[in-house]
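Long-time lurker. I teach an intro course on protein structure, and each term I like to show students one example going from raw sequence to a predicted 3D structure in token notation. This year I'd like something fresh instead of my usual example. Would anyone be willing to generate the tokens for the chain below so I can use it in lecture? Attribution to the forum is fine with me.
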Amino acid sequence: MDNLITRLEPELRRLLARAVDLASSVQATLWLVGGVVRDLWLGVPIGRDIDLAVEGDVHRIVPLLANVWGGDIVAQHPSFGTASITVGNWLIDLAQTRTERYPRPAVLPEVQPAPLALDLFRRDFSINAMAIQLVAQGNDLLPMPLFDPLGGATDLAARRLRLLHEQSLRDDPTRLLRGLRLAARLDLTPDAATRAQFQEAIAAQYLALLTPERVQTELCLTLSEPDPAAVVALADRWGVTYQIVPGLHWTPAMTERLARYQRDPAHVAAVAPTDLVIAGLLLYDVSDAELMMFLRRYHLPTPVRRMLNDLIALRVRLPTIASASSPSRLDALLQPYSVAAIAVLHYATDELIQQNIARYLHEWRLLRPPLNGDDLRHLGVPPGPQLGQLLRRLRAATLDGLITDRATAEQWVRQQLVDS
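-- Reply from a regular --
Happy to contribute to a lecture. Here you go:
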């Protein structure tokens, strides 16, 4: 297929054409590689991350590219021959073509510059080992043939997932998790040899050799999948989930929760970050003890840790939340917890709780009473604990409809002062 390059957006083709001209001036050749080539072949959206292989000195070309593109160098790793540049909403990852040697299982590799053919051979799966040379004509790219020495296109046509090396998963166990995501997203089936390697890696618990940080990176990538529950379902079927999150199993309820969330993009979902809500929905059925083990094992970002800790607390309070008799009571119950954890609860519980949580997130938590602290002082409330207490009670009365405007609020405050 010689026309794959024409499927790129015109803006991206122009960017890459400028890169080709610059690369040729320093005796370097650029290749489009990896997942973007795979997705072009499949005719699916390629996302905003673009992988380029550089036959030549990548660190010589990177600052030149950033300058000509008007982009920012956001990462550079001389020992691996890699760098990343952001240009608008594109992330361009550049890597010098290389071979790899793994001194021990699950450690980062030692690399040596090498031609593109050897670079493709060191990759994980055949479907990720295809390339297209970038050749410019003016401000555009010329259509060039697919370079596919390892049969990736044939495997794609057969919906087959095939590892390229016998020791691939031992060298880098993250490939097991990457394979899971690819198989779930693209409906791929491992060939017999790959299936045997997966089974060996799972039985030998190669994932346990990885640092928590590397596993965590893979987990975050799972959250951005189109159907994270499908990845968990496949991981559960392969026997992988317990090695990462003890107690995590796929259930039909998990899929229903995710589907409910995905059908509701502009409602409750809009108030909390997508990755936090998806993480909570996937982990909702994991026991408190196993969630605490998960939190201890991984150095999760603070928002994730807070969401999971809040979720543990909220699950215990579900009966009380369900029986809350007034908006102010529900507000008092939910106010201490993160919006993300509350949003998870919305998609994971029954319809009555969903309705109340939706109103809390969109109305009640945002409500402000007609009077503030200055107003209360002008009405004769002295500074101190009484002021704060009255403000909280004023808000509760407003939530419950007892106060509807400034006049009724002032009357209410005066009555409280008389009563006290």
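Some talking points for your students: Residues 251-366 form one domain. The chain is about 50% helix and 10% strand.
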